[in-house]
Design goal:
43% of the residues lie in helices and 19% in strands. It is of the alpha/beta class.
C-alpha cells in the first residue's frame, strides 16, 4: 500500500531550512555570475569620428539608450572629428580601459596606413570588428555658379577647360569622398585641387558658399540645398538612383567603367575587446535597428541601407574595401601627412 506524503513538523522544518539556504546562496550565485559577465563596470565611451549632428551621429545617439538598458551602464557618445575619423580611431586602438568603443567610417580601418605609413596604429591588427551599421551611396554635388550646364558632362567639360582652377571638398584624407574623387580625376584626366574638411556640415557650407566647387556628398547633407537651388546634383555613386534625388543618374549609368561605391560606418573596439562581448553588442545593435526608428537616427529615411550585422560581416567588408582602395592609393601614389 502506497504511503501518503508526510507533513510532519520535522520534514516541514527541513524544507524551510533548505529554502532559506537557497535564498541565502542566491546573492553569491548572482555575484559569481557578475564576476564572469559583469561588463561594463563603468560608463562606456562611444567615440565618433564625425561632428555632432552629421553622418552616423544621430544613429550613435539613438543606439546609446538601447546599449545602456541592456548593460546597465551609460553609453556616452563623444564626437572627435579629425582626419576623416582617424583621430577617434586612434584613441579606440590605444584604449586599455576596457570601456571605449568607436563608430568609424571606412577609411580609418582600411586605407589609413597605406596613405600614411607613419600612422600610430595598424588598421588590420588594432581593432575588433563589432557591427556594420549602415551603408550609403554618395551624391556628386556642385555649386551652381560657373558651370555652363547642370549635367555631369557639363561639369567635366568645364573642369577640363580650367585645369587647377576648381577645388573639391572631402571629409578627410583616405575617406571614400577623397579616394573616389582622385580615381575619377585619374580616369577623366582632370586637375582639381583637394580641400579636406572635418565633416560633411562644414564641407557642404563651403560648397554652398562657392569656396569649393564640387564634392561627393551625403544625400541628407545635400538634399535641402538641392531643393532650394543652392546646389546641383549631377551623379550618384550607388548601383541604383536614390528616391529622394531621382534626377541624378548613377556614375555606372554614365559610364559602365565606373564601379558603384558607398560610404559605411561600423562599430569597433580595440583588438583586446573580447569576441563574445562583440557578439553580444552586435546582437543588441541589430535588434535596436530593426525595431526602433529612433535607433536608426533618420538615416533610413535619407536613403541609407540600415544593416546591424555580426562582427564577421564587418570584417569581410573591411577586407574588401581595403583591397579596393589601397589599389587606388598605390596606383595613384597618394600620400597623406595626417
Amino acid at each position: 500500500m502506497r504511503s501518503k506524503p508526510s507533513n510532519s513538523p520535522v520534514r516541514m522544518a527541513i524544507s524551510r531550512r533548505q529554502a532559506l539556504a537557497s535564498l541565502c546562496a542566491m546573492p553569491m550565485l548572482i555575484k559569481s555570475a557578475a564576476a564572469q559577465t559583469g561588463w561594463p563596470t563603468q560608463p562606456v565611451r562611444i567615440l565618433l569620428g564625425q561632428p555632432a549632428g552629421s553622418g552616423s551621429d544621430p544613429m550613435a545617439r539613438g543606439l546609446a539608450p538601447h546599449l545602456a538598458a541592456a548593460f546597465g551602464q551609460p553609453f556616452i557618445v563623444e564626437n572627435m572629428p579629425g582626419g576623416g575619423g582617424i583621430a577617434a580611431a586612434a584613441v579606440v586602438a590605444r584604449a586599455s580601459d576596457d570601456h571605449t568603443i568607436g563608430i568609424v567610417l571606412g577609411g580609418p580601418t582600411t586605407t589609413a596606413k597605406a596613405l600614411n605609413p607613419a600612422l600610430a596604429y595598424d588598421p588590420v591588427k588594432d581593432f575588433r570588428p563589432i557591427s556594420l551599421l549602415n551603408r550609403s551611396s554618395f551624391v556628386l554635388t556642385v555649386h551652381p555658379g560657373g558651370f555652363a550646364g547642370r549635367q555631369f558632362a557639363d561639369v567635366i567639360d568645364y573642369a577640363r577647360a580650367h585645369p587647377g582652377q576648381l577645388s573639391y571638398a572631402s571629409i578627410g584624407p583616405g575617406t571614400v569622398t577623397h579616394l573616389a574623387m582622385e580615381e575619377l580625376k585619374s580616369q577623366l584626366g582632370l586637375d582639381i585641387v583637394h580641400v579636406p574638411y572635418r565633416g560633411f556640415p562644414q564641407a557642404t557650407l563651403d560648397l554652398v558658399a562657392g569656396r569649393c566647387q564640387l564634392m561627393f556628398n551625403l544625400a541628407t547633407a545635400a538634399s535641402e540645398h538641392v531643393a532650394a537651388g543652392r546646389l546641383v546634383e549631377v551623379a550618384q555613386t550607388g548601383n541604383k538612383r536614390l528616391n529622394m534625388l531621382p534626377n541624378a543618374p548613377t556614375l555606372h549609368e554614365i559610364n559602365p567603367a565606373f564601379e558603384p561605391f558607398f560610404g559605411w560606418s561600423g562599430m569597433i573596439g580595440p583588438a583586446s575587446f573580447p569576441e563574445a562581448r562583440a557578439q553580444r553588442l552586435a546582437a543588441i545593435v541589430r535588434t535596436a535597428l530593426a525595431n526602433d526608428a529612433g535607433a536608426r537616427g533618420g538615416l533610413d529615411r535619407a536613403g541609407s541601407e540600415i544593416l546591424g550585422t555580426d562582427p564577421a560581416e564587418l570584417q569581410s567588408l573591411r577586407d574588401k574595401e581595403a583591397t579596393r582602395w589601397i589599389q587606388v592609393i598605390t596606383r595613384l601614389g597618394l600620400r597623406s601627412a595626417e
